[in-house]
Amino acid sequence: MRRLLIRPGALGDFIVSLPALEALRADYTEVWTAAAHVPLIRFADRVRAISSTGLDLLELGQASPALESELAAFDSIVSWYGSSRLEFREAVAGLPFQFFPALPDGGEINATQFYALQAESLGVRVVRRTPRLEIPRLPSMPYAVIHPFSGSTKKNWPLDRYVELASQLDLPAAFTAGPEESLPSGMAARRFDNLWDLATWLGNAAYYIGNDSGPTHLAAAVGTPTLAIFGPSDPRVWAPPGARVVRAIAAGDWPTVADVLAALVELRRCNEENSSLDRSAAG
To answer: In the chain, where does DSSP find H-type helix?
Structure first.
């Protein structure tokens, strides 16, 4: 079977759908996704940026015959792209498209489980329901990573609390930021043009602290002990799953610095327990 998976969306949305995407692998698999996410896909036979395909021209009636022929060559096309746009669905009505909602709509089910259930509705089994990216392993480095941003300022724990937190950590704090994210003058930040490079750097840190954001999901997916700070978004839906993930939450308001430090103690405990289990399994 030749299968095409079309997965748009922000980084966090993409990461939580990885177990579903991997379970949908066929004899030949292509993935079309956001250009920035292309380096993170390691299981497919071919990966393309959606922006390079001309897919957006289909509903305008301006797509090339080559694209239509290319799509027709697949036995199965599973798409989170265009699922809510009637014009797009009508434009591909003669092609083997199966559409799924791009985002969870209400309820309390974790987003990773939401996408896994979508995949299982197509008759596959999602064995591993926690996103996982295998990156080059080095000994854990003596630094903690802090990413104080997200896709919405409403989800950002106050920056001054991050600064205060960094001064109280047991390791040097390395702040990271995306291309459009700015720290105050005088504050340095590590920036990466390639998400695989970011994933590798995160995966070799001692631990990570951040908001409900794409890099937080990425840190959890590479196995870094991850402390996710939540305010307005629902951690039951959007918290990264995993044995090395701890959430910092406060009822009705943001956690204090003391709350986050207490959560960090819990994170260390969870990491030590799981490291012991890993060593026992390896032995």
So the answer is: 11-16, 18-23, 65-72, 86-91, 111-120, 159-167, 195-203, 214-221, 235-238, 257-282
Q: Which fold does the domain 2-120 belong to in CATH? A: Rossmann fold (3.40.50)
Using DSSP, state whether 58 is helix, strand or coil: helix
* Structure confidence at residue 140 as a pLDDT band (50, 70, 90): low
CATH architecture for segment(s) 141-282:
3-Layer(aba) Sandwich (3.40)
Specify whether the CB–CB gap between 44 and 54 falls below 8 A. Answer: no
CA pair distance 89, 243, nearest whole angstrom: 39
List all residues 6 or more positions away from 143 whose beta carbon is below 8 Å from its beta carbon.
171, 172, 173, 174, 205, 206
Predicted confidence band of residue 276 (pLDDT cuts 50, 70, 90): low
| 208-228 confidence digits (pLDDT tens) | 999 999 999 999 999 999 999
CA 61 remoteness from chain centre: 33
Q: Which amino acid is at 222?
A: V
